[in-house]
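Case study.
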Amino acid sequence: MYHRSETGLNSWAGTAAKLVVLLILFAWMFRPELAVVIATAKHSSEWVHALIVPVMIVLLAYHRRAALAERVSRGSLWGFVLIAAGLALYAAATWPFSYGYVRDAAMIPVLAGIVLVVCGWRGLGLSLPMLLLCALAIPLGARIYARLIIRPETYTIAAVAKVLDMLPGVGAAVEGVDIFFNSTSRSGVVALGQSNRGAQLLMACAVVGVFVVFSRIRTFRRLVFAAFLTIPVILLCNFSRLLSWGLLQIYVVADPTSVLPRCVSTVISLFLSYILFVLAASAEIHLFSDVDQGTVIHGKKHA
Amino acid sequence: MGKSMLESTKTNSILRGFLSVGFLLSAGVLGVASIALRPGMRALSVYYRKESIAIRKPLSEFDISRLPSFKNGWVRSDIPPDDIETDEYAIIRLSAEQKTTIPREVVLFVTYYSDPNSKVPHTPDVCSRQGGAILRDMRSITIDIPVLLRSTVKARLLLAQYQGYDEAIIFCFYADGRFRNSREQVRWDIGMPGNRHVYFSKIETVARYPTDESPDAAIELCKKLFAEAAPVLISDHFPTPEQVRR
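After joint prediction, the assembly is written out as follows.
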């Protein structure tokens, strides 16, 4: 009964209708958590990418429409198990344990369960990138985030200070999370007053990476390669953000309250992450070219 | 006529999809959860809410004569706090009378909290960086405390660099009768059903050393103070397991 592939408009309409009904119930169930995600995204530059995630999900679904049409089946009862597990996680994170982030994260297994119960295992496989985007849009609590970024922030600040210090006529030193600089024309602190200044936009870069890598259906080897590069690429983009911020403050913008360095450095790091993930996902490397061609020739799709 | 039959078949097919077991179960459980899950769990959390419990003896009355290695040759001075989320604390600086002792000073910093809704405050690894420190090392260590039933305690060690000096910091939480070295473990203990009351404490020892010197002596001094202070705190200050259960 289950897993049997169906084709045709009737099946599509039915699948879409079931998905809509369950997603409405999902939104009703998680309305406080969704409200928090939206409110956080509206007020925090760190999580503003959450607002664009629904558009990305629609675009990914559009890119995968042919594969979805081919592979969506009648669904699996295991989806109900996933939904129940997600709700149980939500309940446990309300009482006896009070973890706001876990309550938010419980949305992901419930969403996965909805996809599984409506579209089946193959539909769920194709939807994993969309679920990953949803997971990256859930804001981490300030205390958890502050603890997680200790090492990357420490190393990024130290590396940026070292590079700035090597520039002719510029001296730079680190104190805590501040990079103090002085040059012949001006002195100051890089990214003064910015919270988590040494580790920002990490999730935004990850979202860019997921979107770029999964914008096409790629081979498993290619995905492993991209996944392996994800953390180095994100850290490099973070480094470029703080470095470009510092360079702008030293050479271009004298006013420490100017938003220009922040905006420009944000664009630079996000654009760099886009370029690097495009390279990771599509560069012609001998290791993948045979497999990629084989995939196209034999119509063998992976994810 | 043919067109209407086709549309009727299409509608029937969609309706059949809605009658699948998986869909009905999922819609049912999501619908019920939307209505009942949140209020139900909130009611449970109110009903089983743990209660605060007062400390047995104020931390400001901590007796350094109970510390074998520090009762002679060390002078106590109390430091006023900066900004902590509790009124129950002790920040005790112990300074060696002999000027040749290195490090010359070590600080015992203990805080006590008993709020069932506490999210557990920041730990020194986060706070010290905001205070201008550069973290040079951050790892878990074990401290032997032979007088305790479980004689090995897992704590966190930080080496922080400030302008002109470095600090060795050892800290650990003590929550409902267990040593814990992370905030998440403490939050887990606070939520765990069983006891009627709830409390936790952060025990921290800090010693400064010159930037260009090895941190080993400072780490050993911090470990020694921690190992001697923890049993005193447990036996004289923190609530007993019976008090927490009652």
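Observations recorded in class. Chain B touches chain A through 48 residues (CB under 8 Å). Chain B has a mean pLDDT of 90. We will return to this complex in the next lecture.
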